[in-house]
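I had to read the description of the data format several times before I understood it. Each protein is reduced to its one-letter sequence and a matching series of backbone shape codes. The format is easy to grasp once an entry is in front of the reader. For illustration, here is how one protein appears when written out as sequence plus structure tokens:
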Amino acid sequence: MEKLDRRTTLKLMGMGAALLAAGSRAFAQQTPTADQLVKGKNPKLIVLSQRPVVLETPYDLLVSQPERTSKEILFIRNNVDLPGYNTVEGASLDGWKVEVTGLVDKPFTFEAKELLALPQSEVTMVLQCSGNGRTLYNPRPSGNPWKRGGMGNVTFRGVKLKTLLESKGVKLSEKALYITAHASRQGGAPEFVRSVPIHALENALLALSMNGEPLPAVHGGPVRLVFPGYFGVNNVKWVEKIEFAEAENTTAEQMPRYRVPVIPNTHLPFLPQEPGSRYPYSFTNSRPNWLVNVNSFIFAPLEGQTVEGPYVRVEGVAFNDGIVPIVSVEVSTNGGRTWQKAELATQGKTFSWVRWRATLYLRPGSHEVMARAWDAAGRSQPLDGNLAWNERGYEWNGVMGVKFTVA
């Protein structure tokens, strides 16, 4: 075989580099940014899936809006994509109909525009994907690799489902134990159905707006059935049918997805699963991701940040399912051996996150601060979140730690 001279070798190397560069550019062009996938979204959002659209809020963006999360940066976890709805602009109410059926004495169908004439209600609530924090489990479970940006704090406004039923003179059967919501299948979208317990009716809201603007199409507009205190998957977007039923629905999003193992006939929140193992999900040995668990997040300082000392302000948010109040948040700088109480910005029951802050005296050097929340039911966060490992990585609420430097 003839040997290549130096000039030919260099020429071939140059051609190879050019081809690699061209391939890299082509790959970059094939990977759209968040704003290209969803009109109006911040381009910095992290694309976890292009179809269906899944976007995570970078943590530094999330903490930049500590009161309410704007539509431009709010995460997206869509299980289906409704054609033409990938925009933060509102969707038209015209022609949108919702059927109410099942265990009611008078089934009916209403036009979404009718809701505008009924008394309006408002709720500020944490909207959180049940997979938020999934990458913190070890080994990493299956599913979208969420860090901590699969959540936000938003204000929904609309008509309570109870108010609608009363306006129609509709009564529920005593056998109605679940509310089952069906998403629209416009454009051939796949089926998406979720069931929640009937007690969620107390706060259920047919949302028409978010943060004072028409409900963004990509976030469920024109009408989304919202259950405050419940994980995001239960807040069905583009609701088309509401069914009152005696049992949970049996579609894939209810079984086996969005469930965690439990010991049957106990009140334990989860069954410890051997990390890396598989589980035979059934309606009797698992429970759905319904109510949000107790959690807290550190908004400042950020990981790897350098701050001025010796007095360092640590702040963040805490939340739960809203059934009882968050009563305290504690911070620790010695790995959880001792804890100091933080100051809460608000008291009482709420579906919103509660802001908290603490001032620590810290010497120059490297530090790690941890935070954990407690509520009035005595629920808190485990130091080791991996205790709740499950193969789909749901409901992470381990204590958060942040490493930073004091100048």
